[in-house]
Amino acid sequence: MVAGPSWPDNKQHRSASKHWHRRGRVGHNQCVQIDTEALPDDPAILQQMLRAVVHHQNELHAENDKLRMLIQRLLRHQFGRRSEQLNAEQLQFGLEDLEQTIAENQAGQEAADPPDDRRRQRRDAQTKRNHGALPAHLPRYEVMIDIQNRDCPCCGGALHAIGELRTEQLDIVPAQLRVRVTRRPRYACRTCEGAIVVAPAPERPIDGGMATEAMIVHVVVSKFCDSLPLYRQAQMLARQGVTLDRSTLSNWVGRACWWLTPLYDLVVSTVLASSKLFADDTTLPVLDPGRGRTKTGRLWCYAVDDRPWSGPSHPAAAYVYSEDRKGVHPATHLAAFGGVLQVDGYAGFTRLAGDRTDGAVRLAFCWAHMRRPFYEFYDSTKSPLAAEVLGRIRELYAIETEIRGHPAEHRRHVRQERSRPIVESLHAWLLDHVGRVSAISDLAKAIRYAIRHWPGLMVFLDDGRVEMDTNVVERAIRPITLTRKNALFAGSDGGARHWSIAMTLIQTAKLNGVEPMAWLTDVLERIVSGRTRTHELHTLLPWNWISTNSSPDTAQAA
To answer: 3-class SS at 253?
Structure first.
């Protein structure tokens, strides 16, 4: 609530204030009413009344802007997209129905045309559209379509082959379950008949279990990569005549994560040993049986990606589970870290850098997080001030697009020459306008946030390795969001840790262009069989891995 205007303590003011305050104190939900027939004659009082009215109107405008922004935010949260930028994947979703309708109309038109016209149209379409070639590694099978009558239609003579027309189409064999039968012949000596020799049984991921490594990995990848909950996988298996309880699939996932834990630890240690990290976190509901509801755990994500500046490190993403969001968790994870840490505005990371007496951690804040409140304010109010900030940030991102993929020193040089003037001008603009807008408005909050984090927002100017934002780790978190929506929650803290193990290995494989199913199957077979020892685990990292299976369906992705 905002109090009404204050006046000098004199008789004239008291007379005027009777007409000013019809209902006592003036709040945001009350209209100011002035009796124009009883205005004071003193110019000073009139000026003060005018200033108070203007101030009160500004407060009301700020309050209205805030309410409109809240409404827009709630509507967007309930019905709209969550990001201010529509990514390519989301855009494709919207184009699917349109493309389907176009294809349907074309099919109807082609069906109505004469056969000769259809063949000509197909030839023309093939010259206009490039669908690409079918991969050479895919197996081929042939279907022969021959003529019935080999007599010449003109003279009746015998026809002879002069060549053939060959076309290729992409076909599919639905996923097929099969049973692997392992045979171990037994041998005995005819002389002594005492000794029986048989080859030792191979190690299994589950003692006495029915599932091969490939089957177990299929369940893991389907759950954590394709976001298929285990109960849905059980239903899909049942349609093929294999009835398995969801608990059985859960057991497979837990056993697989136990075997893969050493490799997971190696990926995490490799990521945290980098001198430049992206860090963020996301929620993970965890079932809490004692209270009969879920608790909110956290998955901390640490990512490395040097590809934007052609750096030497291989891309990787490591997830670590904790039961809450206390700052002690990232401080523990990053106890030995030294370098640039790219983060959002979470206070735990700020305290982490401040508590390090060696000054080894330098925070680089995210421009996307700084931009977001300006965008939300502009989206709801169309404020020209917010538009000004968005326009300047747009210029910075245009420069980043030009220099992406260039060496770090080149990126630093371009940023010093072209980006720094824009950043310094924007900083001066923010300092100039922070006192001009209402202090309670969301625009003022956005400006204060930017000013408060400004030293970290400028780090990218002096270091070509640093990105402007934390989109690398944001993209690494996005698959967790989808899996979380489908699975709803993790069953326990141990199950939540399985999330961190599986997501770390799968996302790291995807970042390095390695097919997760093929890689994890081969990795699990090597670890279970003992062919790869603990000191050799580095050979199983996605960027070092060489498949031992030459079949097309398990070969490393290009």
So the answer is: helix
Contact between 518 and 556 under an 8 Å Cβ cutoff? The reply is yes
Let me know if 166 is exposed, middle or buried by CB neighbors in 10 A (0-12, 13-18, 19+). Answer: exposed
Q: Where are the domains positioned within the chain?
A: 1-61, 256-366+493-558, 369-469
Q: pLDDT tens digits, the chain, 558 residues: what are they? A: 344 444 444 444 444 444 444 333 344 445 555 666 677 777 777 778 787 777 777 777 777 776 776 776 676 666 555 454 544 544 454 455 556 666 667 676 767 766 665 555 555 555 444 455 788 888 888 988 888 888 888 888 888 888 888 888 888 777 788 899 989 999 888 888 778 889 988 888 888 888 999 999 999 999 988 888 888 999 999 998 889 888 889 889 999 999 999 999 999 999 999 999 999 998 888 877 766 677 888 899 999 999 999 999 999 999 999 988 888 989 999 999 999 999 998 888 888 888 887 888 999 999 999 999 999 999 888 999 999 999 999 999 999 999 999 999 999 999 999 999 999 999 999 999 998 888 888 999 999 999 999 999 999 999 999 999 999 999 998 888 777 777 667 777 888 899 899 999 999 999 999 999 999 999 999 999 999 998 999 999 999 998 766 443 443 333
**81 by DSSP, 3-state: which?**
coil
CB atoms under 10 Å from CB of 363, counted, come to 20
Q: Rounded CA gap, 349 and 333, in Å? A: 11
Return phi, psi of residue 528, to 5°.
-65, -40
Classify residue 108 by burial, with Cβ atoms within 10 Å: 0-12, 13-18, 19+: exposed
SS3 at position 341: strand
DSSP string for 168-225: ------------PPP---EEE-TTT---EEEPPPPP-SSTT-S--HHHHHHHHHHHHT
Q: How far apart are CA 266 and CA 246, in angstroms?
A: 30
DSSP 3-state of 295: strand
CA 68 – CA 51 distance, rounded (Å): 26
For residues 447 and 386, the answer to whether their CB atoms sit within 8 Å is no
Amino acid at 416: Q
Euclidean distance between CA atoms 360 and 337, whole angstroms: 8
CB 510 within 8 A of CB 542: no
Query: Residue 419 and residue 414: Cα distance in Å, rounded?
Result: 7
CB within 8 Å of 545: residues ≥ 6 apart: 514, 519, 522, 523, 539, 556
Tokens 């080149």, residue? Answer: 410
How big is the chain, counted in residues? 558
Output the six-digit token pair for 264. Answer: 């997971």
